[in-house]
Amino acid sequence: MTTTPAPSAPGTPAPDAPVLEAVDVTKHFTVRSAVGTRSVVRAVEGATLSLPRGRVVALVGESGSGKTTLARLLAGFYAPTSGEIRLEGVPVRQRRGRVERGHHRDVQLVFQDPFGSLNPLHRVRHNIERPLRLHHGVRGKAELDRRVRELLERVALTPVEQFVDKFPHELSGGQRQRVVIARALAVEPKVLLGDEPISMLDVSIRLEMLNLLDRLRTEDGLALLYITHDIASARYLCDDIVVMYAGEMVEGGPKEHVIADPQHPYTRLLVESSPDPGRGARDREALFDADADSLGEPPSLIDPPAGCRFHPRCPFAMDVCRTQAPERINLGDGRWARCWLHQEGRAGELARPGAGVEPVAPGALAEPAAAPTATRTTQETQ
Amino acid sequence: MVTQIVRDADRTGTGRTGINLTGARSVSGDVLEVTGLGVEYVTDGDPVRACAEVTFTLRRGEILGVAGESGSGKSTLITALTRLQRPPAVTTAGSIVFHPRDGGPAVDLVAASPKELRALRWTSLSIVLQSAMDALNPVMRLGAQFADALRTHDRSLSRDAAWARAAELLATVGISGDRVRSYPHELSGGMRQRASIALALACRPELVVMDEPTTAVDVVMQRQILAQVLRLRRELGFAVVFVTHDLSLLLELADRIAIMYAGRVVELGTADEIYDDPRHPYTRGLRDSFPPLRAPLRRLTGIPGTPPDLRRPPSGCPFHPRCALRFEGCDTHLPELVDAGGHAVACRLYDAADGGMADVGLPARTADGTEGRAERRIEDGIERRAEHRTEGGAR
Ligand SMILES: Nc1ncnc2c1ncn2[C@@H]1O[C@H](COP(=O)(O)OP(=O)(O)OP(=O)(O)O)[C@@H](O)[C@H]1O
Ligand code: SF4
Ligand code: SF4
Ligand SMILES: [Mg+2]
Q1: Do B224 and A294 touch (CB under 8 A)?
Q2: Residue A159 lies in a domain
Q3: Which of A288, A291, A295, A313 to probe the B interface (max B CBs under 10 A)?
Q4: Smallest-distance ligand from the CA of A349
Q5: Are A183 and A224 in a shared domain?
Q6: Exposed, middle or buried: residue B92 (CB in 10 Å: 0-12, 13-18, 19+)?
C-alpha cells in the first residue's frame, strides 16, 4: 500500500556501470520530396544516455521529438550518423547499417502496438519458442515446453494452459502485450527498451503492465528504458527521467527532482500541461490560465530553429538563445539541463510556486530539492 | 445465453428512469434530458448493446465528462445524442429532450424529423470529433466551410462577411486569420483540431458534444485547446458533453462526470465526488489506474480482468466478473442507477432491496461538507463485505 514501485532514492551511490549507452549520438535521415528535392531530417542530435542495470530510465517528450528514433538506435535497428552506441562499454559495430546478432540478444525492443509485433498466424507457443530456438538453440519438446511455461508465468499469463495455444487475435490487448514481453524475455536480454508499451492498452490494465516492468527491473535486474509521453506513468515506474524536445535532450535527472522542480522551460511546460488526477477541479481556473494560449508548436526537424530549438516558444528566450545552442550543464544530484538560464544566473526564474509545481511530498525524497548550483562543464559523456 | 436477469423491485423515491438526476432544479436550467437511452448495433450475430438505459441531465453551460474504457459505448452515446448515428446502430429505447435557450418548445431528438434536426445542427447542437479530418472537408478551404455553416444559420450573411467572420473565429482559437484560405491538410494536427472546435462554435450552439477531442494531440497542445474551450465557454455559455478515456483529464476539466461501463452509466457525480468519494467499485479502480503526478506514490493495481464483450455481456451486474466486492446475487441482479443528492451509483452495495447497506437511503453530504453518518456505514459495509469475502474464501 505504501511501497512505491521505485524505492530507489536519488542520491544513492552511483549505480554500477551502464549496460547500454548512447554517447553523443546523432541521426539524420535524408528524405526526398515528391518533386525530388532532398532534405535532411535532424531526428536526433547529440543524445547522451546511459541505462544502468536494475534501473528504469524514462524518456519523455512530445510526438516527433525523436524518442522512437533513439530507441531504434539503441536497439541497433539504425546506425548513428555520428556518435556511438556502447554495450557494456564496448562500441557496437555496424556493418552496412546492421549490428551483429549478439546485440539483439542483449537488447530487446518492445513496441507500442501489440497487434503488429506478433506473428498472427502462429499460436502463442510458437511465437515464444522461436526466439528460444533461434537465440539459445533450445531443442526438445519437453525443454521448450518448460521454458514457455516459465515465461508465461513470469508475465502472469496464467493458468498457462488457457493462453499457450491461443492465436494473438484471440487475446486482449493487454494479454497480447504480455506475450510480446514474454517473447522479449525469452531472449534473456540485459536491456529492455519499451517504446510506449502501454499507450494502446485499456486504462484499467496499464498498471498491471507497469507493475510487470517494475518486477523485471527489481527481480531480474534488467536495465529498462521506458519511452512515454505520459509523465505521471513515467514517475510511477522510473528512477530517472530524460526529457527530449525536437530531437535534443534538454533535461535529465532523478524523477522527483525533474517533475517537482524542472530546470528547463520546456520541462516546466510539459509538467504543467500534464493532467494530474490529484489536482482537482478546484484549481481549474488557474490551470487553464490565459497564458496557455498561443504557445506555439514544436518545430520542423528539417529546418529546426538556430540556437536553442525551444527559443521560438520560450518565455525566457534571450539573444544568445537565438544563435547559440546551450551546452549541457551539470546541476548536482545527477541533474543536468541544457539551457542558457543556468549560465546567465537566471535559473531561479524557473521556480513557479503555486503554479502547480508543489514541493515534493515527504518521504518521496530524502532531502529537500535544494536549489541546484550551476557548475559549468564541457559536454559531458558520463 | 444470458442467465435470468431479475429486475429490481419497484422502489419509491429517486433513481427511477425518468427522474431528473440533477435533483430539484427547474427544467429551464437544463439543456438536455436523456432518459433510458438504448442503442444497439444490429448485425448478423447477436446485437451489441452499446448503450443501455442511459439517463442523465445536462445543465445549461456545464461540462459533463463521460469516462470509460475502450468499447464502453462512449462514442456510441455521442453519435446518438447528435443523431449522427448510422446503421447498423439503432436507437432502441429512450428519449433525448432538448430545451432551447429561447424558451421554445422542447424537442425529443429521437423522434425529431431530419428537417427538424437540420435546423438544430450548428445553431443549437454541434460536435467535435477525435480526428478533425472527420469534421473538416479535405477539399474545401477553411473559410468556405465556415461560410457554409454560418450561412445555414443566417441566410442574409454575405459571402465576404462570412469569410471575415471565419477569420475572427479562427483567431478565437489562436489561429491567425489569414489561414482561412488554407486547406485542412495544410495545418498541423493541433491547429486542425482547434479549427474544428471554432467551426463547432461558429453559430453559437447551446450544446457541444466532443468525442476524445484532444486524444490525438500532445499534452501541451491539449492544455491549450482546453484552455480555449473553457475561455469560450465563459464567453458564450454553451454546455459540453466531453467524452474521453482519460479520467485524469476530466477530473480537472469537468463539472460533473459520468462513468460508463459496458454501455451503462454506473456512476455520476461532481468531479470532486468522483475523485474523493468514488462509490462504484469500477470507479474506484479506474481512479486508481491513474498514477498521480505530484502526490506521494503508492503501488496501484488497476483492475484485474478485461472489459466485457458487449455481444455477450455478463449477466447481472456487468462488472461482476472483475469486481472484488461482488456478493450473492451480483451475477443475476442488474443494479439500476440510483440517485442520492445528485451523486448516483449503480451498484448493489448501495441498494437496500438487494441486501446492500443503504437501508437508510443514500445520504447526501451534509451542507458543511462533513460525511453523513449513514455514508460511513456504507463505507464500513464495503469493508465488511470485503473481509467477509476473503474469510469465507468465497472465490
Ligand atoms: N459499426 C459497428 N458495428 C458493430 N458494433 C459496433 C460498431 N461500432 C461500435 N460497435 C461496438 O459497440 C461497442 C461500443 O463502442 P464505442 O465505439 O461506442 O465505444 P467507445 O467507448 O467509444 O470506445 P473507444 O474508447 O475505443 O473509442 C463496442 O462493443 C463496439 O465493438
Ligand atoms: S536556452 Fe534560452 S530559449 Fe532555450 S530554453 Fe533556455 S532560456 Fe529558453
Ligand atoms: S453490484 Fe455487485 S458486482 Fe456490481 S459493482 Fe456492485 S458489488 Fe460489484
Ligand atoms: Mg470512442
Answers
A1: yes
A2: yes
A3: A288
A4: 2
A5: yes
A6: middle
Of A6, A203, A288, the CB nearest to B289: A203
The answer as to whether A211 is a domain residue is: yes
Task: Provide the domain limits for residue A340.
Answer: 247-276+301-352
Ligand 3 atom closest to Cα of residue B327: 2
Shared domain for A220 and A108, answered yes or no, is yes
- A207 and B289 within 8 Å at the Cβ level: the answer is yes
> How many angstroms separate the CA atoms of B287 and B206, rounded?
30
Is the distance from the beta carbon of residue B48 to the nearest atom of ligand 1 less than 6 Å? yes
CA distance A112 to chain B (A): 15
Is A315 in the same domain as A216?
A: no
- The beta-strand segments (E) located in A4-106 are 18-32, 38-52, 56-60, 82-87, 90-91, 94-95, 98-99
Nearest CB to B302; choose among A207, A362, A363: A207
| Model ipTM value | 0.80
Residue type, B59: R
Backbone angles phi, psi at B102, to 5 degrees: -80, 10
> Are residues A209 and A271 part of one domain?
no
| Domain total in chain A | 2
Give the Cα separation of A143 and A323 in Å (integer). 62
Nearest to A297 among B188, B248, B303 (CB): B188
Q: What is the pLDDT of residues A284-305, one digit of tens each?
A: 666 665 454 566 778 888 889 9
Cα–Cα dist A117/A180, whole Å: 7
Q: CATH no. for residue A239?
A: 3.40.50.300
The number of the ligand nearest the C-alpha atom of A264 reads 2
Q: What are phi and psi of B246, to 5 degrees?
A: -95, 85
> Does position A16 have pLDDT exceeding 70, yes or no?
no
Query: Is the CB of A272 less than 8 angstroms away from the CB of B223?
Result: yes
Provide the grid cell at B314. Answer: 455478463
Q: A70-74, A243-247, B114-118: lowest mean pLDDT where?
A: B114-118
Whether the predicted pLDDT of B21 surpasses 80? no
For ligand 1, the distance from its centroid to the CA atom of residue B73, given in whole angstroms, is 6
